[in-house]
Amino acid sequence: MEKKQFKAESKRLLELMINSIYTHREIFLRELISNSSDAIDKIYYKALTDDSLTFNKDDYYIKIASDKENRLLKIYDTGIGMTKEELENNLGVIASSGSLKFKEENEIKDGHDIIGQFGVGFYSAFLVADTVTVISKAFGSDKAYKWESKGVDGYTIEECEKNYVGTEIILKIKENTEDENFDKYLEEYMLRSIIKKYSDFIRYPIKMDVTTKKLKEGSKEEYEDYIEEETINSMVPIWKKNKQELTKEDYENFYAEKHYGFDKPIKHIHLSVDGMIRYNAILFIPEKTPFDFYTKEYEKGLELYSSGVMIMEKCSDLLPDYFGFVKGIVDSEDLSLNISREILQHDRQLKLIAKNIKNKIKNELKNILKNEREKYEEFYKSFGRQLKYGVYSDFGSNKEVLQDLLMFYSSKEKKMVTLDEYVSRMPEDQKYIYYAAGESIERIEKLPQTELVLDKGYEILYFTDDIDEFAIRMLMNYKGKEFKSVSSGDIGIDIDENENSSSVDEQENKELFEYMKETLSDKVKVVRASKRLKNHPVCLSNEGDITIEMEKILNSMPNSQGIKADKVLEININHDVFKSLKNAYENDKEKFKLYTDLLYNQALLIEGLTISDPVEFTNNICKIMK
Ligand SMILES: Nc1ncnc2c1ncn2[C@@H]1O[C@H](COP(=O)(O)OP(=O)(O)OP(=O)(O)O)[C@@H](O)[C@H]1O
User: Fold this and answer.
1) How many A from CA of 412 to the centre of ligand 1?
2) ipTM of the assembly?
3) Domains observed in the chain
4) Atom 19 (ligand 1): residue with closest C-alpha?
5) What is the tens place of the pLDDT at every residue in 540-560?
6) Is the distance from the beta carbon of residue 119 to the nearest atom of ligand 1 less than 6 Å?
7) Closest CA to 65 of 188, 212, 201
8) Rounded Cα gap, residues 441 and 422, in angstroms
9) Is 451 in the pocket of ligand 1 (CB under 6 A)?
């Protein structure tokens, strides 16, 4: 028998193919199954135009059979088959796609979209096989042919016997090597899992003989192996089904089957878009944070299918980081894929889908916030932080999308509120949106700095996440109202009745404060009489952009550069403690220094900052207790 050579370019391409196009060997099965599915589709199209042919769906299937003893893996189909010429043209010339030609010649309707287009997928068989044999009988022909190849060497074609129309691909699976276990491609569990992973939604049944254990006839405890033909794939993907026919449980089951999470999703979004780009998608908003969600290890992304075939397990381009918690799948026939089907060649379509999806998620979250407040608060507990990261990152470019989805705890309502709710009930004379940052709600509630703002009857938002202040800085304002920390030097509240007296006090105590500042040296920028304190003797505030809370966060990060807030030590001159301080200033400078140190350290403790010498601090307390 004459051995034919692959064309020169084809030879090089074949080597390239086998070694570099595909990153996972297991995709060979996806490629061969897709070819079989295409071959059946072609019969389906023939039947549309040929009255003598009726397409009875039950007659069309793909079958996978493994023969471990002889290391053979067979893939049969009852598709259109290939003539001798087609075997030569399609399998003898790499990068020649009979399927693409067929698509061009026939009008493709009904979403029966043929998968093949590059004319290379078939050769992925050599990723796992030494020899590939194809036995095929074409529709309308009475002769069958056998094509065989051991890879780059070339191939042979000869006539052979075959009873039914269709194609049989026989792979002689490679022997194991040190690095690679090829035996697994003959194992039932492996084949099943590859089929499920990539080809679950191929429209035709993919059958396999599976071994199950069954009670022996007449016995109550003895089992025997029993072989049964099973259809492995689910065929119709849930996202192609009619929404009206699906129940909440159907979506929840799909979520569980796909291992999207152990929780139940709080919402699903089922999309069938038929516009500039066609796609189907099912998206889930989970309820609970995956254990690794806020770590580097977490990979965001949606599963991407093209015409029912899985292309990518996690397509990260489909989701912005701030919606990285969303799970689900997207299936589109309109994607331009590259040869390996692994990377998308032109991402224009993908970008369009991503944009669309982003808007859908945003709107759905807004709906939940509006109509199912409790549910939204649950969601926000898990993923609110991610939304705030979204506001902060990319130089705030996504703040418009996200600002209405934010919530903070309110001093007034004692629950989470939105910025819109806050602004809508601001009294007319209130200029700013006030916030207080701290470790927890309980701690913030005790902060002396909140006293004046609360006394004015203004609402304060509590920032307990480390990202909060940073996100708000990016946001700058909401509906024209600026944000203001209750600890900032200028709090923006006019205290008319005390205005004059406090500046008199300031003047009167000028030297005392200067001496305090001297004692504390560069630990504080200035010491002054407080306008905001009512019941507490002392507190810290800041001047400039960096607040004390921000200083804490920045310094807890690796490679922190020791950034410091410009701290102001504020003293309540109406407090009894101040009288003692003044007394000490006039009569006992040593005592005055001791009091200054104690007051400063108290202010640090109130802020949740560490004091540099706790032993000295306790010794100082002991001194005054004596
Ligand atoms: N099981 C089959 N039945 C009938 N024709 C087949 C079969 N397998 C392959 N072919 C023919 O061989 C051609 C080449 O197959 P190959 O898998 O290399 O490329 P493709 O499917 O066209 O494109 P892609 O590289 O995108 O998968 C196909 O276009 C098809 O015409």
Assistant:
1) 68
2) 0.98
3) 8-231 (3.30.565.10), 238-376 (3.30.230.80), 406-485 (3.40.50.11260), 503-625 (1.20.120.790)
4) 119
5) 998 888 888 888 888 777 777
6) yes
7) 188
8) 18
9) no
pLDDT of residue 48: 81
Q: Return d(Cα 201, Cα 258) in angstroms, integer.
A: 14
pLDDT along the chain (626 residues), means of 10: 66 67 84 94 86 83 96 97 93 72 69 67 90 96 94 88 96 94 96 93 93 83 88 89 90 89 93 89 95 91 89 92 96 76 70 94 97 96 95 90 96 96 94 93 90 90 93 92 88 62 67 92 91 88 84 78 86 92 92 93 87 90 86
Question: Annotation-wise, does 367 bind a ligand?
Answer: no
User: Is 341 labelled a binding residue?
Assistant: yes
Query: Would the CB of 293 count as within 6 Å of ligand 1?
Result: no
Edge-to-edge strands of the sheet including 538-543?
526-529, 566-571, 538-543
What's the 57 CA to ligand 1 centre distance in angstroms?
21
Angle at alpha carbon of residue 218, lines to 213 and 221, rounded to 5°? 50
Any ligand 1 atom below 6 A from CB of 36: yes
Closest CA to 96 of 114, 123, 71: 123
- Any ligand 1 atom below 6 A from CB of 116: yes
Q: Which pLDDT score is estimated for 500?
A: 45
Phi, psi of 531 (to 5 degrees): -100, -15
Cα 607 from Cα 336, distance rounded (Å) = 56
**Cα 626 from Cα 622, distance rounded (Å):** 6
Which residue has tokens 């084809």?
Answer: 10
Phi, psi of 8 (to 5 degrees): -50, -50
Q: Which spans in 3-116 are helix H?
A: 8-16, 27-49, 84-86, 98-105
Ligand 1 near 120 CB (within 6 A)? yes
Question: Residue 103 Cα, ligand 1 centroid: separation in angstroms?
Answer: 12
Burial class of 45 by CB neighbour count within 10 A (0 to 12, 13 to 18, 19+): buried
